[in-house]
Amino acid sequence: MSGHSSSRVANGLRITLIHEPEATRAAALFRLSAGSLDEPARWPGLAHLLEHVLFAGSVGYQHEQRLMAWAPAHGARLNATTLAHFTAWFVEIAPERLAQALCRLSDMLARPLLATAAITAEAAAIEAEYRMLQSHGPTLCETALSQAFAAPHPLHDFHVGSQRHFGDDTVALQQALRDWHQCWFHSGKLELWLSGPQPLQELEALAEETAAAFARAESVPAAPPLLQLAPQRAFALQSAAAQHLQLSFLLNDPQPASLTLLRELLTDQASGSLLATLREQGLCDNISLLEPYRSARQSVASVRFQLNGLQLAQCARIETLFRRWLAQLSGLTQQQRAHYASLTQRRFSQLSPLDRLRDLALGFPPAQSTTPLPLPQSLSRLWVSPAVSAPVVRAQGFSLRLAAIDWPQAKPETPPALRFYSPASTPVAPALPIAQSALAAVAGPGEPTLLLSIQPGLLAGRRTAALIEAALQPAMGDALHGGGELAFSRQHGLWQLRLSGHDALLAATLDRAIQALTDPPAATQAFGERLFHQAQQADDIAIRCLLARLPDLLNSTSADALSALRWQATLYGGADNSAAGLARRLTRLPGTVEPAQSPPQVFPTQPHYSCPTAGGDAAVLTFCPLAEASAVCFASWQLLAALFEPRFFQRLRVEANVGYVVSCRFHQTAGQAGLLFALQSPALSTEELFGHIDRFIADMAATVESQTTETLAAGWLSLLPALPENVPKNRQQITPHWLYQQLNLPFSFARPSPDRLRLAYQQLTDSAARWWRLSNSA
Question: Are residues 671 and 770 in the same domain?
Answer without folding.
Answer: yes
